[in-house]
Write a structure and sequence with these properties.
Elements: H1 3-9, H2 11-14, E1 23-24, H3 30-40, E2 51-57, E3 60-65, H4 70-83, E4 95-101, E5 104-110
Parallel strand pairs: 1-2
Antiparallel strand pairs: 2-3, 4-5
Helix pairs in contact: 3-4
Amino acid sequence: MTKEELIEKYPQYLNPEGIKTPIECENGWLPLIDKMCHEFDFFNHDNSLFIIRITQKYGALRVYTNWLTDEIDSIIRAAETKSLEICEICGKPGDIIGYNKPRNSWIVTRCEEHRED
């Protein structure tokens, strides 16, 4: 699945009013986002929920929405927690690793194959 396919599948969450939600993560986490959006359908009865931004921070998926209920928050937290075990690039099992280079440090979740990417 590509980001464009995900946006087409869930326009109510990822393309509200024709404004595409920034998806600022790699494709390995797209299945997590797909599952999360599917689960939103059970609680978004008035179709007012949408995602403002999707990004990666401190090695985990981060999802920002226009409103939350306990159920929506639980769905988001589950996806964010699961992302800590999944390579952001390919979707295989991964671990959090840190890179510390001069003037540039970051934390990412990667499998063995993508540790250096």
